[in-house]
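Subject: for your reference before the review

Hello V.,

The reviewers asked for a structural picture of the protein, and I figured it would be easier to keep everything in one thread rather than splitting it across files. Below is the amino acid sequence we used in the manuscript, unchanged from the supplementary table.
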Amino acid sequence: MQGCVISLVAIFAVIAFVVAIQASNRASKALAELAELRRRLDRSFVKETVTPPVEAPEPMPPPEPVIATPPPAPESEPIVIAPEPQPEPIAAFEAEPEPIVPPPTPQTPLPASPSTGSR
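And here is what came back from the structure prediction:
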């Protein structure tokens, strides 16, 4: 029984050691990438500050205004568009009210006539 417990503890220790080594390798790679990115950023910042500013080109003078002349008036008679004629109003439709008919009353059944002959 004690041998099983000791072997399980040893297996867990080996697994923990392997996981710790892998985590350490990952962290080292991440730190190396971070350092490389910082170097690139510093280099780009230095390049931006060292280069002289580009002079802006002289602005172009504004273009001369163009004067538009209206087209010549046609010599024919002007076309007059008449408004559409309005339709005549429709007279109100007066319907006679329907006569009120009382609902039919149920008829009482006739009493059964007594049978005249009994056999």
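For the response letter, the relevant points are probably these. The two ends are 111 Å apart (CA to CA). The first helix runs from residue 2 to 50.

Happy to draft the paragraph if you're swamped.

O.
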